[in-house]
Amino acid sequence: MSVNAVQLSGAALPPFFSCADPFLAFETDSYSVFFKPPGMHSVPASSSDSPGDSGDSLLSWVRVSYPALESAYNSLGPLGSVIRGANQAGAGMMRSDLASLRAWSELGMLSRLDKETSGLVAFARRPEIFFHALEGQASGQSRKLYWLLAVQAFHEEGLEGSRPRCFPRSDGDPVLAGLEFKVESYFRSYGPRGKRVACIAPDYEGGKHKKISVIMYRTMFRPIQGAERRQSGDWPAVPRCLAWEASLNAGFRHQIRAHMAWCGHPIAGDQLYGRSNDASNAGPCDSSEVRADFVSLETQPCPEISTQPMKAVHERSESAARLYLECHRLELTNPIGNTEIFELTQE
Fold this sequence. Notes:
Blueprint: E1 5-7, E2 23-27, E3 31-36, H1 58-65, H2 67-72, H3 77-88, H4 95-105, E4 118-124, H5 127-138, E5 143-151, H6 174-177, E6 181-190, E7 196-200, E8 217-223, E9 241-248, H7 255-262, E10 295-297, E11 325-333, E12 339-343
Parallel strand pairs: 1-12, 4-11
Antiparallel strand pairs: 2-3, 3-4, 5-9, 5-11, 6-7, 6-8, 6-10, 8-9, 11-12
C-alpha cells in the first residue's frame, strides 16, 4: 500500500456473498461505491432507454434511491441533449463531449460490470470528480481487483473465434501450477450480434480478421491459496475449481471471462464462455503441454504463495449456476492526490 493510499472502512462480506438487492457499500467525499448483485444489469439493457427510464439495473436503482447524485449531474443535462441531437444529425463529437454525455446519462458511473458479475461499482459524486477519475483511469492510476473460481480441467479448444484458439504450452499450465501470470490481447466482437468477444494475440499476423480494439488489454492473475480458510469468511466450495484474483487497470467488455476461457480454464458458471458449465462434471485435468505467447509467466511464484499446485475445493458441493466472478476491490484517486481503496473484505 502506498503512503498516500487510504483504506476505507465499509462493507465486510465473504466472497460471492448471496444477496438479491444492491446496497451502498462505501461513501467518501469523492465517491459512492455500490454493491451490484449478480443478475442485475449495470445500466438499462435497452440502448433506447433514456436516463429517466426505470428498469432492472443498478443505474435505475441508484437514480431512484439516491436523488442527490442525479441532482449533482443536472447541470450537464442541456449539454447532453445538445450532444445527442448533434450525434443523430451525423455531426462529430469531441472526446470531452462524449465524456460529458456519459457523466450526465450514467450519473458519474465509472465502470460497468456484466449482468452476471457481482461486486463493487463506483459513482463519482460530482462532475469534476468524474472527469478527474477518467484522467486517472487513462493514466493507469486506478485499479480493479476481482475474485474468481476457475474450472480446474483444461479445455484445449480455448476460446472460439480467437486467434490463435489455444496453444500447447512448453512450460506447463500456470493455472494448474498455481503461478502468477498475465494475459495480453486485443479484442473483437464475435458471434451473432457481437454478443461475445474473441481474443487476438498481440503478435498474431496469420490471415485477416474483423476490426479489433485499438489498444491491447492486460489482465494479471494471482492464485489464492487456502481461500476457504480466509478469516474474512468461507469461500464457496465449488468442486474442481480453483480460487484466483484478477486485476486490471483498463477493462474491455468480458475481458476477464474471455482471457480465462482463452487459456483453457473458463470461470465456473460462465454460460457464455464456459465449455463445461457444470464444474462438477468437468473431465480429468489435461496437462497437455501448450505454448502460448499471449500468456506471460512470472519467473517465480507469486510472493507468499506456495510453490505447490493449488488444491481444488471438494468439501461441499454448490451449484455453479451463477457466474463466480466478483469485483471485490477498487482503487481510485481523489482530487487531492490520495488513492482511496474500497475493499469488501480485508485479510
